[in-house]
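INSTRUCTION: Work out how this chain folds

Fields: amino acid sequence; protein backbone structure tokens

Chain under study, with its fold:
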Amino acid sequence: MTPAPNRKSTLSLTDARTQYASGRGYLAACTLGLPTHATMAAMRADTEAWTRGEASASRYVEVVERVRVGYADLVHVTPDRVSIGSQTSVMAGLVAASIPDGAEVVLPLGDFSSMVFPFLAQAHRGVTVRQVALADLAASLTANTWLVAFSLVQSATGTVADSVAIRAAAQATGTFTLCDTTQATGWMPVDAAAFDATICHSYKWLGAPRGVAFFTVSENFAAQLHPINAGWYAGDDPWASCYGPAMTLAHDARRFDVSPAWPAWVGAEPAIDLFRSLDLAELRAHNIGLGNALCDGLGLPRLDQAIISWPDAGGRDLARLTNAGLTASGRAGRARVAFHLFNDEEDVALALAALRP
């Protein structure tokens, strides 16, 4: 786990749960998070304003900038290090396209394809991709490795990468680090400043609408990257960058911005603010406690994870959960459940009852 500075919470987990309309039996935050009352209210108000012809581009820009600042606070970086976009693969593609010809990238086997395909797509330039077991990732880095890219929490299994060891090995070998925190940010403390770059799509554990993603980047690593997605929103002054012929990009991470899908950011603002108000170490302990309780009931080793998965090639266990009215998922031949803020011990009991008829 990536250590992060302690955050002073202003909202208890008990009070935070009241922000959700539902959650009982929903064991799929790793697939799609749930919105809060505040997110739904903000999106309804925005839609109504749009319907009345009162939507304002300048107001949307203000919202996006507030969300940028809020996310920066959540992951312990300054706002000038945060770029905004819509999809993990696009942000990973920015990094992949900037890798020098013939360089080596090391990835963990079985990582989510949005953190794999963009790098494999650079083979025509002689970029070499080595995929190794997650547990061997740190030991696999050499002085020839330009980049190590990995998910902090693995999507299919919920395994938490040993980011401390990976970062130490990267520092020793002069390797850049890119960490996808999509399956981590929102349920555990994350310190984005510990990596050269991070990517996070916020529609899972943060419960924002799909289409709100973040890219954090250090100044040193940013100098290695090409703003291949540059458009008007990447301009030093976006409103003065709507037309050519000259291009004057922002000097900070905003030069990597992709024009935002405005309504999604309206819903993201209260979502990000909710998790900024929580003690994420406490939330991590809550989620892990539920995960370990499920493992105990299933006779599995305790994993200390919010995502619990097990072999289910035929989908029998996933069907049992679904037939019991629970929402779970299946990935890579495994049944997968996730425990989050809105879950409690009753959800564990419901899952065990479904799986042990």
User: Anything to note?
Assistant: The chain has a mean pLDDT of 96.
